[in-house]
Structure formats: C-alpha cells, structure tokens
Amino acid sequence: MTDISVQTTELAGVVVATPVGRLDLSSYPSLRDELLKQATEAPAAVVVRLGPDFETASRAMLAVFTTVWMRISQWPGVPVVLVAETDKHRHELRRSGVSRHVDTAPDLESALERAGQPPPRRYRRLSLPNSLVAALLAREEVRDACEEWSLPLQLDDALLVVTELVENAVRHARTESVLRVELRPAGLSIAVRDGDPEPPVLTASRPGAPGHRGLELVDERCAAWGSRPSFDGGKIVWAVLTPRPKR
Question: Which one of 36, 151, 180, 243 has the fewest CB atoms closer than 10 angstroms to its CB?
C-alpha cells in the first residue's frame, strides 16, 4: 500500500490542503476522503496545493479532484481551487481534463484571490441537546431562517427534513448535535452533526407497511442528501433542497 498524507492550514477562513506522497489506486480513497473531510466544516473554500512532493502513478488518478469537486458541489457547496505549482502538474491537469471542471491557479496567492470571492451564502448554526426538545428547537431555527431569507415556498419540506435528521440523531446517536442551515445558489442546505460515526441507511419499505419512513421522506423531498465523517469522530448528515418554482 502507498501512503499519502495531507498537510493542512487555514488562511482567512480558507482551508489550504497540501498532499504529500504518491497518488495511486491504494492511496486514492484516503486522499479523496481527507479532502472531503476538510470541507465538512464549510470553510470559505478548499485550496489544494500540488507541489514537488506530490506525484501520481498515472494521469487518470487526477480524477480524484473532479470527484471531490462534484461531491462538495452538492454539499457543502464551497469552492475548490487547485494550485498547480510545477509545470508537470499544470500539463497533467490540462491533459487529464480536470481543469475543465475544477478551477486551477498557478500559485497560492492567485488561488486565495479566487477563493475570496465565493458564491453568496447565508448561514445559521445551533447547538442542540440530546432530548426530544431538539427537534422543536431545530424547526424554529429553520422556520426563522426561511422567513428571513424569503423562502416560504420551501418551508414545509425544510421543516420535515430538519425534523427527521434531528430526531434520527436523538434516536440513534443519543448525543448532543449541531444544526447548520445555509442558503447557497444551489438551494437550502440542512446539516446535523452528531457523535455517532455509523452512517444512516435508507431502506425501502412496503407501501402501507408500519414503521418509520423518515429517510424515505428526506430522499423524496431533497435534491441530494448523504453523510460524511466529522472531525470529532461522529458524522454529519446533510440534505439540500432546491427552491420550488413559483406557481
């Protein structure tokens, strides 16, 4: 197995990640997952520096950055910028086609300038107790956000989704949780972080059969949803609702 590490720092709210090592089939998942984890706290942007200490087994391995960009674009929707610090990396990014999708810059200063102009976002965060009252508090926070951000057409779906995510955290994780509500160009993002690393599982139920259909309802109403590990050893379950067209 080939090892790869990611050195990280934060500059003005931007996560700067520097992969060190060789990217191949064995190290591909760890680099992908580490970059996704860096995005879970919704920084202003994620900048990835490709310097002389980073190499790839083949040009095809660079698709990891397209994969990361695609997943982050769903949630949390923060910009991703690649810094190609060597002529070889710039050439390989062009030949691989990655630069057609992922923004690239020749140096860190240029990348930070681009990252300093992220899409407009509105943001709310609320710590929730490990009790049944958590869902009530979360609904009030989402209701206030939708009213403040003029999203009345989305309110019913947003309340249902946040209720299911928070109740799942109380029912299964049995830990305190943190609610994050964000408005981005892609839509309304609702995320709940809890202390249980076990990801939620969507299981199809038979029509009319008894049982809890929470995740089915989330899946029906959201453009996308999923979960990712959090830095504290738990997980973040997220969902994105797109605005309904006006009638």
Answer: 243
Phi, psi (deg, nearest 5) at residue 166: -75, -40
CB atoms within 10 A of CB 229: 15
Q: Are 204 and 168 in contact (CB under 8 A)?
A: no
CB 50 within 8 A of CB 66: no
pTM tops 0.85: no
Residues 90 and 10 in one domain: yes
| Same domain, yes or no: 80 and 178 | no
Distance, in Å, from the CA atom of 238 to the CA atom of 229, rounded to the nearest integer, reads 11
Is the same domain home to 153 and 86? no
pLDDT in tens, 168-216: 999 888 999 999 999 887 789 999 999 999 988 876 544 444 445 678 8
pLDDT digits (tens, 9 = 90+) for 25-57: 999 999 999 999 999 888 989 999 999 999 999
Alpha-carbon distance values, 1 to 20, 148, 166, 202 (Å): 15, 51, 39, 33
